[in-house]
Write a structure and sequence with these properties.
385 residues; alpha/beta; three-stranded antiparallel beta sheet; 12 strands
């Protein structure tokens, strides 16, 4: 099996599983309990909080553990807008955000908030000038993702963050796809809130975090206890949080040992081979300002679903877009926002590389994919109406 869907999820690393096991077996105490079993769990949670703070270059009290990227996005948008409603009611985001942001924004509109959705250019990029023009006296939050999950394009978040600081507006970025692939020091970014998810970096599913800069007002979205500095109620998922910490340690090692550069080389090899084998294929997203492991294509005169199924039968696992949208008949909202027609958006393929992928696997995909595209096109043109 050649797994090329790391933007959807990653296999938990053996080191992550080993780190979690003691907290699934003997160290099972509630982290809010005062006795020794609970204190062991509390130490594990706070150790991970310190690890995360070191990774992102912030203070431990600025790290809030959540159930994943979607909850972190919702907490950032809903929490800030609710806290600052008296000061302003305007959110700026983009048309190509993850559904966790877009659906949260739609829900905020239903509550009377105003939302500006910025359109990308053909390569999936937002210009800083667009953000500047959209800011009003009532703008309280800007939310722009760091790297797009469907076409891989990177946004100029550093410049957007500086603009937000100059205008006195808070800035949130969904960094679910970029954590582990690009250095992320929140002081340099700069941002006030940042979302990430463990299962994108070889950690467990169901856990993530929200970096929230000290002083940023936030209304908790879960009623309950006073966990996570009164910002996120609920008994801490200690094994998953420990797994998140182990995954962040591995991510740091990968950044230091050149893994992003290795993936970038594989990505370019894959893209060049596919484009050479299917001359009318198109690389979607920005050609260079993109995630180092992300190659996304559009093949005219073909449907994505039969292509995926035929690749699967040949042991190659990819995607036609966001995993959250699998099973939807509607084409990718990201490709539509980039200006593709509904028919053009149906012929999409996303291949995202990971730590275990090799040159030999990439070459195997290059050998299999072009003939498969040609055969599917031939079947389509010869099939009876």
């Amino acid at each position: 099996m050649i797994y090329l869907d790391h933007a959807a999820t990653t296999q938990p690393a053996p080191e992550v599983v080993e780190a979690m096991l003691p907290y699934l077996r003997e160290h099972y105490g509630n982290a809010s309990s005062l006795y020794s079993l609970g204190r062991e769990s509390r130490r594990a949670v706070e150790n991970t909080r310190e690890l995360a703070a070191a990774f992102f270059g912030c203070r431990p009290q600025e790290i809030l553990f959540t159930s994943g990227g979607s909850e972190s996005d919702n907490l950032a948008l809903r929490g800030v807008l609710a806290a600052l409603r008296a000061r302003g009611d305007h959110l700026i985001t983009t048309e190509i955000e993850h559904h966790a942001v877009l659906h949260a924004a739609r829900a905020l509109e239903a509550q009377g908030f105003r939302v500006t959705y910025l359109p990308p250019d053909r390569q999936g990029r937002i210009a800083v000038e667009q953000v500047a023009e959209a800011i009003t006296k009532r703008t309280t939050l800007i939310s722009v993702m760091h790297g797009n999950n469907e076409v891989g394009s990177l946004q100029p978040v550093e410049a957007i963050g500086r603009l937000a600081r100059e205008r006195g507006v808070l800035f949130h970025t969904d960094a679910v796809q970029t954590v582990g692939h690009l250095p992320l020091a929140v002081r340099e970014l700069p941002c006030d809130l940042l979302s990430m998810s463990a299962h994108k970096i070889y950690g467990p599913k169901g856990v993530g975090l929200l970096y929230r800069k000290i002083g940023v007002p936030l209304v908790s979205q879960i009623a309950g206890g006073d966990q996570e500095f009164n910002q996120r109620a609920g008994t801490e998922n200690v094994p998953a949080i420990v797994g998140l910490g182990a995954a962040l340690e591995l991510a740091y090692q990968a950044l230091q040992t050149g893994e992003p550069e290795r993936l970038r080389s594989l990505r370019d090899r894959l893209a060049a081979g596919v484009l050479a084998g299917v001359p009318d294929a198109e690389l979607t997203g920005h050609p260079t300002e993109r995630l180092p492991n992300h190659a996304s294509f559009r093949f005219p005169h073909i449907e994505g679903e039969p292509l995926l199924l035929n690749l699967d039968m040949r042991g190659i696992l990819g995607s036609s877009g966001a995993a959250c949208a699998t099973g939807e008949i509607e084409p990718s909202h990201v490709l539509l926002a980039l200006g593709y027609t509904r028919q053009e958006a149906h012929g999409a393929l996303r291949l995202t590389l990971g730590r275990r992928n090799t040159e030999a696997e990439v070459d195997q995909v290059i050998a299999v994919l072009p003939p498969l595209v040609h055969s599917l096109r031939k079947l389509r043109t010869t099939a009876p109406a």
